[in-house]
């Protein structure tokens, strides 16, 4: 049995987390949950958006499934998502972008995996004003961080039978910073002679992804480009409701849906649980429970492909609980 921290989160979080718990129970997934609060729920119940007990649980279990958390724009408490990534040094942001049968999108057959460096680049937040009329933001790229994200991408490629890793950059302009990122990728590529390695400039990649997304396999990117192409990727396969993500470090991993708290539909039994279920499937794979992960994934894909018992965002009329029950029947 694996102990896993579950943060149901805010808005639709508790509804879609309950769906995952029911599906795990029905599938006999070898997981016991330690349920803890964070975000607005943490603040309301325990007076803290990131309570000490939640942090202590993740530190002990080293694996968490997290529902979406409310982040206030321009005021209020600091983003809990960012604090968690920094606290546990979750340097690897992994987002699979895959076409799903039955989910509406302009494309078919997409099977991309994006590896985004999660700790530095312009997101280090080192900014300052220069006088009244200018401001600077400092882009930080280190050899160490570039090597470890490249290592994560190539190790994943080798483990999952992937053919190719493409590094994303703008080193024609940012020769030092993006140049260092590429140097790290090239160094790691040499340790994996069986995996094809190439490089693409980020603006060209955006055009190529829109024209022919099936042309890519694994994309390896520094933080800012990775953030942007991750959402571009979600758009290619049908949007927020069907895309999971993982934040992984040496000390642990946190899995989540990519979407937010959907306050407009919270509490109405209308949320699509697919993205959090897919994040939970990634969690099982991370725990080396591949067979159980594959069963849940297949059951979800059958329900999506049939399209009869899906939530309104996917064009159906089912409730969250109906869709969950349909997935459990397929198990
Ligand atoms: P959102 O993703 O919550 O909602 C955007 C639209 O997509 C809404 O119309 C919503 O109803 C719909 N939607 C999202 N997930 C859905 C699902 N599973 N099923 C059906 N419909 C779904 O984005 P928004 O409105 O920008 O953010 C709301 C809150 O969520 C904010 O406080 C934001 O900071 C937070 N947020 C948290 C994230 C996280 O914890 N990882 C990620 C993104 C936003």
What attributes characterize this protein structure?
331 residues, alpha/beta, Isopropylmalate Dehydrogenase, 2 domains, ten-stranded mixed beta sheet, two-stranded antiparallel sheet, 11 helices, globular, binds 1,4-dihydronicotinamide adenine dinucleotide
Structure write-up:
Strand 1 (2-7), helix 1 (13-27) and strand 2 form a beta-alpha-beta unit. The longest helix is centred in the middle third of the chain and has 17 residues, at 143-159. The relative contact order is 0.17. The protein has a ten-stranded mixed β-sheet with strand order 2-1-3-12-11-4-5-10-8-9, sandwiched between helices. The protein has a two-stranded antiparallel ribbon with strand order 6-7. The model has no long low-confidence stretch (mean pLDDT 94). It has helices spanning 13-27, 39-46, 52-61, 80-87, 143-159, 177-189, 202-211, 223-236, 274-286, 290-306, 320-330, and strands spanning 2-7, 31-35, 63-66, 92-98, 111-117, 127-130, 134-137, 164-169, 196-201, 218-221, 244-249, 252-257. The protein has eleven helices and twelve strands. The protein is 41% helix and 20% strand. Helix 1 runs parallel beside helix 11, helix 7 packs parallel to helix 8 (223-236) and helix 9 (274-286) runs antiparallel to helix 10 (290-306). By secondary structure, the chain is of the alpha/beta class. The chain is globular, with a radius of gyration of 20 Å. The protein has two domains: 1-103 and 237-331, Isopropylmalate Dehydrogenase; 106-235, Isopropylmalate Dehydrogenase (3-Layer(aba) Sandwich). It binds 1,4-dihydronicotinamide adenine dinucleotide. The site of 1,4-dihydronicotinamide adenine dinucleotide has 21 residues, from loops.
């Amino acid at each position: 049995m694996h102990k896993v921290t579950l943060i149901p989160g805010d808005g639709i979080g508790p509804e879609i987390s309950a769906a995952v718990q029911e599906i795990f129970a029905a599938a006999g997934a070898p997981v016991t949950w330690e349920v803890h609060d964070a975000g607005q729920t943490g603040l309301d119940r325990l007076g803290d958006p990131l309570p000490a007990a939640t942090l202590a649980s993740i530190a002990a279990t080293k694996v968490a499934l997290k529902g979406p958390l409310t982040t206030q724009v321009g005021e209020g408490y600091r983003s809990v998502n960012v604090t968690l990534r920094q606290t546990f040094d979750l340097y690897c942001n992994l987002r699979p972008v895959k076409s799903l049968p039955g989910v509406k999108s302009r494309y078919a057959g997409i099977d991309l995996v994006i590896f985004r460096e999660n700790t530095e680049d312009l997101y280090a937040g080192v900014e300052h004003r220069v006088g009244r009329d200018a401001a600077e933001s400092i882009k930080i790229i280190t050899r160490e961080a570039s090597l470890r994200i490249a290592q994560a991408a190539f190790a994943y490629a080798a483990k999952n039978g992937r053919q190719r890793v493409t590094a994303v950059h703008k080193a024609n302009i940012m020769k030092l910073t993006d140049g260092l990122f590429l140097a790290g990728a090239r160094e790691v590529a040499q340790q994996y002679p069986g995996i094809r390695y190439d490089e693409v400039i980020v603006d060209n990649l955006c055009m190529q992804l829109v024209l022919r997304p099936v042309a890519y396999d694994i994309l390896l990117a520094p933080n800012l480009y990775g953030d942007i192409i991750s959402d571009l990727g979600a758009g290619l396969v049908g949007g927020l409701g069907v895309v999971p993500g993982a934040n992984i470090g040496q000390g642990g991993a946190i899995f989540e849906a990519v979407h937010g708290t959907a306050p407009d539909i919270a509490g109405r039994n209308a949320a699509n649980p697919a993205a959090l279920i897919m994040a939970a499937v990634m969690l099982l794979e991370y725990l080396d429970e591949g067979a159980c992960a594959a069963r849940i994934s297949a059951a979800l894909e059958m329900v999506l492909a049939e399209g009869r018992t899906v939530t309104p965002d996917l064009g159906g009329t089912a409730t969250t609980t109906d869709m969950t029950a349909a997935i459990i029947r397929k198990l």
